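Example 3.
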Amino acid sequence: MSVPPTIAVENLRKTYVARDGEVVSLDGVTFDVRPQEFVSVLGPSGCGKTTVLKIVSGLEPASGGSVRVDGRPVSGPQRKIGMVFQVPALMRWRTALDNILLPSEILGINRAEARARSVELLKLVGLADFANKYPNELSGGMQQRIAIARALAHDPSILLLDEPFSALDMMTRNQLNIELLRIWSERRKTSLLITHSIPEAVFLSDRVIVLSPRPAHVLEIVPIPLPRPRTPEMRVSKDFIDIVDHIGRRIGLEYA
Amino acid sequence: MGRETDTARTLKVVATLVVLTVLWELTCRGFQVASFLVPAPSDIAVKLWDKQHLFWTHSWVTLHETFSGFMIAVVVGVVSAAVIVIIPSVRDVLMPILLIAQLVPKVAIAPILLVWFGYGVAPKIIIAFLVAFFPIVVNMASGLVAVERELLDLGRSLEASRWQIFWKFRMPSALPDLFGGMKIAITLAVIGAIIGEFVGGDKGLGYLIIIANQELDTPLAFAALFIISLGGILLYVAIELLERLVIPWSQTAQPSQVRM
């Protein structure tokens, strides 16, 4: 271990107090994400994947274990993180461009500079012509692209993505996977993606953290040896299908 | 929806009104209904024309009371809603007061207000304010609260200050609800002002109706009613136009989505 990990999650525990007693959501989850790596956390729905991400982002406290980002224990929100949610969560009263400007406004970044970068980000996500459109004038896929651009607006070193494409149809989803891959290869942000789509996780990631059903623990950390840059055709290659199959069986076996 | 449908709709509304008016006129003439019972539209029109000076003067007073009461309601309503949302512990103190203020029958307290504030415009403005502000508080407060959870998470992740969360996240998000409340409030404010004029005073369209009744001048009363209705509609439309101007991004501000 020569390079220290960007995100180090160790023996992470999360419990909730529900009506019928304590519910264990995360039961000792351990993994790390290295600098500029793309890692996915994959698991059945309701297993607590999103909780992992919220704890890493500092939005939710852990019940036990530790999370370190750049070697420092997480105690609250951190500005070095950009977030993308399941829903675009755009401000419907702001145009696409103004939505991307929001983080810079909050952080008090020089407006002219922020504007130039936002325009550039719009180009990056392929929506340069839609700068002055309101969210309700954009498709779901376009809205989520704006959300990705917004997450990059303050130039964070880490990108956290919480099932960002789960509400989109299959075709849009595949297309945005390719887009995300391109954006990641251009910007090289350390990325942590939460997803329940095995092909999506395999296609995008360097490694896939496979979680068990609740209470979640790590079943396996699967390295994805597919070469970069990745192309859409790889998704029908034998190597790809073998990995997808392997993970599928791994999750399936645990269910039985 | 396109322009064609909008035009078609306008035509339908106008046609309905014209047909109703003609039916009314024919009924009154056909059955020779006495003017002091139900005046024909033509009687009312004549009255409006003959007494236009009177109507201008009194309309102006009622409009002034309505608008003042409404504006105070907007300011007080928005501030109350903001306080309730920003300082949740105040909610339990403020809500009962607001509820009581809403539940007290305005007609019943109008005479008391008269005793306190005299026969001028003040008690009318207060009643207009009292009836108008509740829908504004309720709409505004729920609008301020109903910000998407993920959007607030984003704000938190950027360590936005409470101030920033309020002005950049909550306030704009609540504007459509505020306009919804204002549309209800403006119609109520008109009623409030009229109630105030009924109870006591010597000016305004409500006062004019009282006088008309005493003198059995029913066409005059109907003419006043006509102006009140027309004024109410115009005020409502004015707020709709303002809404389209201020929040063009809102669904409710889109002409094809919501109609009066």
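Residues 101 and 115 of chain A are 7 Å apart (CA to CA). Chain A touches chain B through 27 residues (CB under 8 Å).
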